[in-house]
Amino acid sequence: MSDLHIGIFGPGLSGKTTLAKHYSRAAWARHGIKSICLDIHREVWGPQALVTSNPEAFEKVVWAEKSCLVFIDESSDTIARDKGMTKFFTRIRHNGHKLVVIGHDGSSLLPVMRQQLQTLALFRQSEDPAKDWAKLYGNKKLLESCTLGQHEFLWCEFYPGTAVKCKLALGNQPVQTNLGEPNISRPDRI
Fold first, then answer.
1. Which of 23, 34, 64, 113 has the smallest set of CB atoms within 10 Å of its CB?
2. Per residue in 111-130, pLDDT tens?
3. Looking at domain 5-185, which of 2.40.40.10, 3.40.50.300, 3.20.20.80, 3.30.870.10 is its CATH number?
């Protein structure tokens, strides 16, 4: 897996958590990588994922485990610009972990947190957040996030600076991807 830290941002019902769950399942299927999820709703992520709504329990597991995908969902509630959460962005890679943060527009993250996200899955954004992401990534294509439809997103990598329009494949029309699972059409980064 090549992505170090990933941010998935968009409005409600855009497909953020669906994308994250797919990423978790694909990492397990292809590489045997477990997931640790802080999810205040305690949704089902699959057998590969330990899910908790308890931040203290989540933190203990993250520091005890090695080489997992670490998901923090609903960042406006779970992170909420809390400086104490910075360690998940700056230190967990030393345990071999890869972080995936899920939120609405990135405003719930401190600047140092946003700067650690090497890859961005950006669903529809309003103009100001789109400008903020475009400026941070040095990529004006992210401004196109203002015009995306439901389940569409831009997959943007800080290095080399690419941004590709993608769409979740839901319902009766699955898209077979090179991930080996019919759920989503996006670049193969696992």
1. 64
2. 999 999 999 999 999 999 99
3. 3.40.50.300
